[in-house]
């Protein structure tokens, strides 16, 4: 039985999973920037103007709108067992089941919590809930996503206007020296998290936005002590954006009934909050205990910081982000006619482990294994303009308004630099984008990862609005990367390899 060394910390710093290789392992991506876009090369400065609140389709909202009670899953009342898999940690297992790390170690009589065996069976105790979490609404959903309300917001100009530590901060990211504002902007775009929220979180945790001399212990860890591999603004905000998304999309799919706090407290979720507030509650959960968490997510916490920077957050509310009659535009498979590819990854994170299960993976056929050059072509799934490219990523908008936070947007990931389409080019469905590869992170096999957004929200591939690619409809199987494509009586199951059973052709 294979042994795996693990970190037992409850704060797991995860690489951003955006694809699955067709061998055995996850494709990991750290949110690399968009180096080739005109925006990336422009001077982000100028005179800052206070943002104007975006009105809802029906008019302005000055107070949170009431929400019907959310259908949350029941809190587990029976002991369960869990079989350890490769890549597991005690911290991740505890987080998954909503129990404290200490309780998991204690109930399994684990002498050395730094070692687990693949195949080891753990007893998962019943969670012990604390008091019901607050129903106070912190932010609207539209202040979580990089959506319509983010249009026209100049991150760099705002940061300079505040004169804090962030205004002079620089950090080397992918061998390039980037300003603090640029780092924040890139992570906002990549994760599709509103830059105003990231700025408010950063200010609340460290004062970096307004204080030119923040506390010494925040200079490497402005969000918090997330472990030795999460130092510096880039990795700190990368974790923050992923954590915010985790709460948002868990709420969207009724994926959890409790939050697990840093002190081991298990807090049942108030069913009347909104998805944006769930994002904030999840973000603070591993950072503090019950008292600190309650303060952060109620009226004296983050909302006070946000209001001091930007005004009352619900003045920006844009509802609904997803119209009730929303339909996917016509899309085709991301492969050329008469080519055979493999369906290697079912529904999984669009960008990061916290985003909705918005992505599918496809790998070209062939005999070569691993990260190899491929002369096969990834093609556009629909008509639209290429907005930006960089480090394996290609972003295509379908509504031709020049902003990726509105309307339909498609992400293609792991697209090789060689022969890759340039930003600003308008493509018709079926036009070539570039070659599949392992670019954009660590991947054990050449493939392409595709995901959809609408108004900045990742659209899950396993929910009410699945992918429809040449009539192939996506669905999930309840496990990350597992799932199906079906068309009529044809069904293909995702498989991390090349087999006749997962082959697909236009």
Description:
19% of the residues lie in helices and 21% in strands. With 506 residues, it is an alpha+beta fold. The protein has 3 domains: 58-68 and 132-316, no CATH class; 76-124, Membrane-bound Lytic Murein Transglycosylase D, Chain A (Roll), CATH 3.10.350; 340-505, Glucose Permease (Domain IIA), CATH 2.70.70. The strands form 8 sheets. Strands 11, 12, 14, 15, 16, 17, 19, 20 and 25 form a 9-stranded antiparallel beta sheet that branches. It has a 4-stranded antiparallel beta sheet with strand order 21-22-23-24, with no helix packed on it. A two-stranded antiparallel ribbon has the order 1-5. A hairpin with a 6-residue loop joins strand 22 (472-476) and strand 23 (483-487). Helix 6 packs across helix 10 (302-310). The two termini are 42 Å apart. Mean pLDDT is 85; it is low at 1-62.
Keywords:
3 domains; Glucose Permease (Domain IIA); 10 helices; globular; Membrane-bound Lytic Murein Transglycosylase D, Chain A; 19% helix; 506 residues; disordered N terminus
**The biggest beta sheet, please?**
9 strands, antiparallel
* Helix share bin: 10-25%
Structural class: alpha+beta
- Tally of strands: 25
How big is the Rg?
Answer: 22 Å
Low-confidence stretches: 1-62
Continuous helix count: 10
Total number of domains: 3
Distance separating the two termini: 42 Å
Strand content: 15-25%
> How would you name the oligomeric state of the polypeptide chains in this document?
single chain
């Amino acid at each position: 039985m294979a042994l795996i060394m693990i970190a037992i910390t409850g704060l797991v710093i995860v690489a951003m999973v955006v694809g699955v290789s067709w061998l055995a392992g996850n494709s990991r991506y750290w949110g690399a920037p968009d180096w080739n876009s005109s925006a990336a090369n422009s001077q982000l400065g100028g005179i800052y103007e206070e943002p104007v609140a975006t009105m809802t389709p029906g008019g302005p909202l000055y107070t949170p709108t009431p929400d019907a009670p959310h259908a949350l899953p029941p809190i587990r009342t029976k002991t369960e067992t869990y079989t350890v898999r490769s890549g597991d940690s005690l911290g991740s297992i505890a987080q998954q089941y909503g129990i404290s790390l200490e309780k998991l170690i204690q109930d399994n009589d684990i002498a050395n919590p730094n070692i687990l065996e693949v195949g080891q069976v753990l007893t998962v105790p019943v969670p012990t809930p604390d008091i019901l979490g607050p129903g106070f609404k912190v932010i609207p959903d539209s202040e979580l996503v990089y959506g319509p309300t983010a249009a026209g917001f100049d991150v760099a100009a705002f940061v300079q206007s505040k004169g804090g530590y962030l205004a002079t901060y620089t950090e080397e990211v992918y061998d390039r020296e980037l300003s603090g504002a640029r780092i924040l902007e890139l992570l906002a775009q990549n994760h599709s998290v509103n830059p105003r929220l990231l700025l408010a979180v950063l200010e609340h945790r460290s004062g970096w936005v307004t204080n030119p001399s923040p506390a010494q212990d925040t200079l490497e860890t402005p969000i918090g002590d997330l472990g030795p591999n999460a130092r510096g603004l880039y990795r700190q905000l990368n974790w923050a954006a992923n954590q915010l998304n985790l709460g948002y999309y868990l709420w969207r799919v009724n994926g959890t009934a409790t939050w697990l706090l840093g002190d081991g407290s298990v807090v049942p979720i108030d069913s009347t909050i909104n998805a944006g507030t769930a994002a904030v509650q999840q973000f603070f959960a591993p950072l503090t205990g019950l008292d600190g968490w309650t303060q952060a997510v109620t009226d004296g916490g983050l909302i006070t910081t946000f209001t001091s920077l930007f005004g009352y957050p619900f003045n920006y509310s844009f509802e609904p982000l997803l119209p009730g009659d929303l339909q996917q535009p016509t899309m085709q498979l991301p492969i050329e006619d008469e080519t055979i590819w493999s369906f290697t990854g079912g529904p999984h994170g669009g960008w990061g482990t916290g985003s909705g299960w918005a992505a599918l993976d496809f790998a070209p056929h062939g005999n070569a294994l691993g990260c190899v050059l491929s002369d096969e072509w990834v093609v556009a799934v629909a008509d639209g303009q290429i907005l930006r490219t960089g480090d394996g990523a290609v972003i295509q908008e379908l509504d031709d308004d020049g902003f990726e936070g509105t309307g339909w947007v498609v992400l293609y990931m792991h697209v090789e630099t060689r022969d890759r389409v340039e930003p600003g080019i308008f493509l018709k469905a079926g036009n070539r984008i570039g070659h599949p590869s392992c670019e954009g992170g660590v991947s054990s096999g050449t493939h392409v990862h595709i995901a959809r957004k609408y108004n900045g929200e990742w659209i899950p591939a396993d929910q009410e609005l699945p992918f429809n690619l040449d009539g192939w409809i996506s669905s999930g199987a309840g496990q990350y990367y597992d799932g199906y494509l079906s068309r009529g009586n044809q069904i293909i199951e995702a498989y991390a390899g090349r087999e006749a059973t997962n082959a697909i052709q236009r």
